[in-house]
Amino acid sequence: MDQTKKTVLSCIQPTGDMHFGNYFGAVKNWVDLQAKHNCVYGIVDYHAMTMPYSPKKLRENVWNLVFNLLAVGVEPDNLFIQSLVPEHTELCWIFNCYCPFGNLSRMTQFKDKSKDNADMGKEGFISAGLFDYPVLQAADILIYKADYVPVGKDQDQHLELSRVIAQRFNNGVGKEYFVMPETLHTDTPKIMSTADPLRKMSKSAGEKHYIGVFSDEARIRKQIKSAVTDTGETPVGEMSAGIQNLFRLIKAAGNQEEAYQSLMDEYKAGNLKYVDLKSVTADALVSLSHTFAERRLALLENKKDVKQQIKQSSHEIRKKAQQTLKEVKELSGLLNVKY
Length: 339
Ligand code: AMP
Ligand code: TRP
Description:
Elements: E1 7-12, H1 20-33, E2 38-43, H2 45-48, H3 55-72, E3 79-81, H4 87-96, H5 101-105, H6 108-119, H7 128-142, E4 148-150, H8 156-173, E5 182-184, H9 217-225, H10 241-253, H11 257-269, H12 274-301, H13 303-332
Parallel strand pairs: 1-2, 2-3, 4-5
The structure holds adenosine monophosphate and tryptophan.
């Protein structure tokens, strides 16, 4: 690892399809940051257990996400699977003892998700793991002494808690051991659902509210064709949320710059045809999706080797986590196992 570079850490839950909201909001940034920094990216399967889940599906989702992330450009050496680095959970316990209970009670993600679980009736159950989720996230970040954490805006509160825990730990052990991690946001504002441009694109809202990066071409075109353009709440003279979102998608894709400009000129002149805007949006997404799908297919031809490679990179990344945990146990007054 190059010591002069900054460390970037981020993680994603293996909970189903990757969509253009995740991709443009976070994952594209992960890919771009690799040129400048030491990057560590995790697939957090321990976190995925905090909501009702199926064990068989969890393992499938993990490997599926490995292939998706590699296909969009994450380098295999930078990728690890959280359950292959169990030190995260041990550090989580130590951090539990430095984390104020009141801060956890105020987490909006906990409130939202426990409401989702409660709404599921008997199927839903609010686990202590869901409550403790942000402490494990703090361990993910601090175990690699991350300087930067690229995530969407919805994660700000969790990042703030990581800094609270780091500071309390430093105060408790009497040493400025952890550096305070900073959040990095992308230039792309939130991507909205094309079916309802007033809510964010997301898996949890149902199938029509997200466009999968690896969906087939016909489906992507159909979803864009039926995109809502008029939400009926736009003040005169302003661009509607639906139109804004389509322009945003074209811009984020970065492969239709001339068409973007001429559509924008037409909009300003008052003669934009929505059918043209939609067709350019669909072309932009389909072209990206094709490139990624081809790479994914090539990776799947060597499925076994790729899986082995990620187990190996997790093993290498684990060494850094073990070193931090050893130092933390020492500072905390715990004993270290000698192997
Ligand atoms: P999730 O799929 O909700 O676990 O999110 C994974 C990452 O993608 C997080 O960093 C989120 O902040 C980001 N993200 C999720 N949905 C969107 C969206 N609609 N627009 C922008 N970023 C998003
Ligand atoms: N909570 C994050 C999300 O829902 C996922 C996550 C877990 C994470 N651990 C992390 C993100 C550490 C950044 C750093 O998207």
